[in-house]
Amino acid sequence: MALTYSAFKTYIQAALWRANDAVLSTNLDTLIRKADNELDKRTKHWERRRKTVVIQPSSQDYNLSYFADDFQAIVSLTNNQTSFYRDTGPEFESVTLNKIYEERAVNSGTLRPFYAADRNDGDWMLRMIAPFSSTDRGNLTMVYRISIPDYEDCDKSWMEDEYLDLYEYTILKHCALFLREDDRITLYKGLADDAFAMADEDNAHNLTHGGTPMRMRPHRYVP
Predict the structure, then answer these.
(1) Residue 55 sits in which domain range?
(2) Helix extents (H) in 47-181
(3) Last residue of some domain: 146, 164, 182?
(4) pLDDT tens-digit profile of 137-166?
(5) Rounded to whole angstroms, how far apart are CA atoms 62 and 124?
(6) Is 214 within the bounds of a domain?
(7) Contact 119, 103 (CB under 8 A)
(8) Total domain count for the chain?
(9) Euclidean distance between CA atoms 137 and 185, whole angstroms
(10) CA dist., res. 160 & res. 107, Å (int)
(11) What band does 43 get if pLDDT is binned at 50, 70 and 90?
(12) Does residue 216 lie in a domain region?
């Protein structure tokens, strides 16, 4: 059963035997976010982190704010309209934002299939070299990588629900660093690496055979 954020923090403090540690309690939100940032980098390739959507932009600048809650990065962008890009194919090429603006200014008539994503006033924007207009809307398949959710903000997290051991040990490692418990850092890192290896294996298995997300499996004894 998934835990609320408050219940999860209580669980973490109990696992550290520091239920009444006010300093840890004050800093635990930050330590959990640090663990989220680490796991965001380590799990980029997981199929669990990908979503596929069809978008219909009417201009070369498309606001992705609809996906802002979980959007992290574009994996691929494909044009579903076969009439476009006959010479170059339907796949957009990822380039820098500067390249997008250079192409628009110098050679915008070529309609090369380029894209870049950037943030503008907090919203993710998709910038393209593309022949879209209000009367000739685009039709694109976008595969994008989702971010690990902000547990504090959402009050739930699929990392806690589906990969509890990996999530817990990664957080405990960051807590040990903060608490200067040097003897525990190596232990928690080893536990987290073991859990990640199993989760990674599970992801590879699901890519090949399909299946359900892994659940917590005991492996090492923590004294």
Answers:
(1) 49-146
(2) 97-107, 151-154, 158-162, 164-179
(3) 146
(4) 889 999 999 989 899 999 999 999 999 999
(5) 9
(6) no
(7) no
(8) 2
(9) 54
(10) 48
(11) very high
(12) no
